[in-house]
Amino acid sequence: MKYFGDGLSEKHKELNQIIRRTDKIEQAKELFLEIHAKLHLSEISNTEHNEVDNLICDLNDNEYAIMPTAKDETIAWVIWHIARIEDLTMSILVAGEDQLFNYEWKQKLNAAITDTGNALSDDEIINLSKTLVIQELMHYRNEVGKRTRKIVQNLKSDDMKRKVSPHKLEKIMLEGGVSEQENSIWLLDFWAKKDIAGILLMPPTRHVMLHINDCCRWKELFRTKKTFYRS
Q: Is 11 exposed, middle or buried (0-12, 13-18, 19+ CB in 10 A)?
């Protein structure tokens, strides 16, 4: 059952069809930005109130750290995970710049890790979720979203078929964006097979759609059930 993003999958399919066409570059960028706007708080794109606003607006602090079932994560983990992946891939792999995340952000967030959180155990996910400063976490994701939009606006048609650079992948590893654990380091191999269009079609769009859908489902559970796997 879909809990989030009615019509977004169809728009994403359309983006996939045109994103590498040189004669459709401006249309592709516009469509990307339309999809991306619906995956972040509306204030990031100055657009109308959206489903992400609805998800976040009335969440209680404790709800960010609830793991509904043994197969789930937490909303705090999801926000960390999608923000870190968008920052790493868009800042480093697409734009060739430094990631937004740095020591200052780590301190403000009270983050125990620097990677995407892919390899965390349930205990580690709960601990991360309870120690992150949620207000700063949302601020970080907002800033990542704003940067992504600027990066995409400046892309040219030739950029879309440009392969991901091995040196930039190495930069992600050296800066702690992924760990050497099997459930984390595979991301480098996954991204290595992409061109820039492929990156745009996954980390800042499709990947986020799937995770926010989970968060919307979990929120519904929070409001209808009394017992959970971990909290």
A: middle
| Cα distance between residue 149 and residue 151, in whole Å | 5
Cα atoms in the Cβ-side hemisphere of radius 13 Å centred on 128? 27
Determine contact, residues 195/162, Cβ cutoff 8 Å.
yes
Q: What is the DSSP string of 147-196?
A: HHHHHHHT--GGGGGPBPPHHHHHHHHHTTSS-SSHHHHHHHHHHHT-BH
pLDDT at residue number 135:
97
In the numeric block, the tokens 């734009």 are attached to: 95
**CA angle 32–98–121, rounded 5-degree value:** 80
d(CA 26, CA 155): 9
pLDDT digits (tens, 9 = 90+) for 190-230: 999 999 999 999 999 999 999 999 999 999 999 999 899 99
Mean pLDDT of the chain: 97
- Averages of pLDDT over each 10 residues, the chain, 231 residues: 92 98 98 98 97 97 96 98 98 98 98 98 98 98 98 97 98 98 98 98 98 97 93 90
Confirm if 192 and 169 have CB atoms less than 8 A apart. Answer: yes
Residues 6+ apart with CB under 8 A from 52: 38, 39, 40, 41, 42, 212
